[in-house]
Automatic annotation (TrEMBL):
YbaK/aminoacyl-tRNA synthetase-associated domain span: 33-143
This protein's name: Cys-tRNA(Pro)/Cys-tRNA(Cys) deacylase
Coiled-coil stretches: none
SUPFAM superfamilies: YbaK/ProRS associated domain
Pfam families per record: tRNA_edit (PF04073)
Family: Belongs to the prolyl-tRNA editing family. YbaK/EbsC subfamily.
């Protein structure tokens, strides 16, 4: 059981576990690999990205099939400019390996934004904190647990 699963259980939030064999040499991104192996739609599998303004870090949760619009994300967290965090920094700060970064149960709780597209779904799938393991849960439960608002942060 991953820390994300433990936290969800502790808060009595209903979730499902979905495991697949992660292929180290897959040509797909981690998120698209989950879509393919779990037979899910790309709009319901969400990736977790870490961004920074050079002083603080923030978390963006968005569909794996889309790109993050850094200007929209910056506006959502009231920053002038953001950039994607270095992969080593992302691992150090979240406590998870890239490809398995969960928005849930990170080492330090960071301000998190969930893309508005999640609000229309019954269930979203996010990493459980390990490559090859995703959690399915209601987007409003995820939002409430993380104190994360739904904001449009996608590139058009």
């Amino acid at each position: 059981m991953t820390p994300a699963c433990k936290l969800l259980k502790q808060h009595r939030i209903s979730y499902t576990i979905h495991e697949y064999k992660h292929e180290a040499n897959s040509t797909n991104s981690y998120g698209l690999e989950a879509v393919e192996k779990l037979n899910l739609r790309p709009d319901e599998v969400f990736k977790t990205l870490l961004v920074s303004d050079g002083r603080a870090y923030y978390v963006a949760v968005l569909p794996v099939s889309h790109q993050l619009n850094l200007k929209k994300m910056a506006a959502a967290v009231a920053c002038k400019k953001l950039s994607l965090a270095d992969l080593k920094d992302a691992e150090r700060i979240t406590g998870f390996l890239v490809g398995g970064i969960s928005p849930i149960a990170q080492k330090k709780r960071l301000k998190t934004i969930i893309d508005a597209s999640a609000e229309q779904l019954d269930k979203v799938y996010v990493s459980a904190g390990r490559r090859g393991v995703d959690i399915g849960l209601a987007p409003h439960d995820l939002s409430q647990l993380l104190g994360a608002p739904f904001v449009d942060v996608l590139d058009e």
